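INTERNAL TRANSFER SHEET
From: sequence group
To: structure group
Subject: Ribosomal protein L11 methyltransferase

Please process the attached sequence and return the structure record in the designated field. Keep the field labels unchanged so the import script can parse them.
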Amino acid sequence: MLVYRLPGTFDTREAHLDLLWEAGATGLEERAGRIRAYFDARTPLPPEIADGDWTEEAEQDWQAEFRRTLRPVRAGRLTIVAPWHAGEAEEGTRPLVIEPGMAFGTGHHATTRMATEALGELDLAGVRVLDVGTGSGVLAIAAALLGAEFALGVDIDPITIPIARENAQINGVAPAQARFEEGTLGLGDLPELEEAPFGVVVANLYAELHDLLAGEYAAHLVPGGPLVLTGILTGKLELVRAALDREGFTGVTVREDGDWALVTARRSE
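Return from structure group:
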């Protein structure tokens, strides 16, 4: 069995998990501070995940190990779980079932968890929510489960869209409650983005993209509407703060978890 061992955990390197799947990994496991990716053959890897090493090991049930190590995650009013943990949501919370796979966003990373918590702190009743860079669909689905009238998840990666739709179906979220489409802000390629502004915009992207899209966030929000941004390394916070100030956002707050930050703000009235 061919194993690629990468320093880190599912939590610290969630952004790199999809790169392993895309490179041909047949399974992932976290053990003793390392991510172990199983491959049928040695393959070239992108530089972001080139800091590991290859090893040959005896065959084992990697899928069983992966399932054993992926635990439910409490995120405010929701507990994010894999399908095989669907009955293990914490008391007083609602399960949000996400199938781990190629799309970013299993809920085990601090950025996803903080954004889900932030959505849970808002009154989403009757609100339309836009999830930019939806990945697995976790944040749009969370919004629907938390009472949003409608959530639209968009992503430039076409691979993510059927995965997000499947996750929505697993959670009993109908297309009338949450839709997922390929695209992004500022391109004019999605009529759904231009029909009316949204009550809430949430985006789990890196800081440089938040800087580029800050004007689009404002354009797609109702006056006074909340903006929830994550995927931000704490060292990049000032870039995001400056972008929000440039676009006239108010009430900026920051929440940190280790190296990662969540920023919330509101569009000016």
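Handover comment: The chain has a mean pLDDT of 89. The CA atoms of residues 137 and 164 lie 4 Å apart.
Transfer complete.
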